[in-house]
Amino acid sequence: MSAPASTQASTLAGDPPAFAFIGGRLWLDFINTDDARLGTRTDTIASFERFVAWLAEARILDAERAAALQRRAVEQPSGAAAALVEARRVRAALRSLAERGRTDQGERAREAALVEINRVLGRSVGTRRVEALPDGGYARSFVPVGDVFGGLVIPVVESAVDSLVHGELLRIHKCADRRCPRHFYDVSRSRTRRWCDMATCGNRAKAARHRRRVGRRR
Ligand SMILES: [Zn+2]
Known about the structure:
Blueprint: H1 5-13, H2 26-31, E1 34-37, E2 40-43, H3 48-57, H4 63-75, H5 77-100, H6 107-123, E3 126-132, E4 138-144, H7 154-165, E5 172-174, E6 183-185, H8 198-217
Antiparallel strand pairs: 1-2, 3-4, 5-6
The chain binds zinc ion.
């Protein structure tokens, strides 16, 4: 029996796009939520709910806090909406920093990112913590005091601060696929990483090279 039309429609629309954690730095994973699918720009944090889901998947929030935030968002939709606007604003500034921060012409992007970072840090009231994770790793977290929607992007912003302090901008690259907006921190010893992900862009490039070779042989 075929599925009812409504189910088919929702399947066609698809599940929300998956998050990509390929940036090598938390703030780069965050700017990569402004992603592209099949050449179309796609915001993978299109709602507050998705933003919280990203924070949980990035392990900035544990499941309990994430669930509490989702409940509060239902009670206070305007607060949740404002937090999402705030997150996107920070994301735009950090994206310019990743795109242009390392160039000589990047001074304005660097200045704008500093203003944005200091604005977020200056407004945060809460407790910074480091949490031990079940897999043996560690993650920064931030528990705000008062405003439950405040400070959600603090660990993201602090990750950008770490990159600035440690002079990492020079090793941040955009994926070599022109249609792909993702950025990553190149930790390869040879500093030759070209693709955001071998499973997607890297593979596509490999297949295209193969097609060109086969085409030449014919
Ligand atoms: Zn890519």
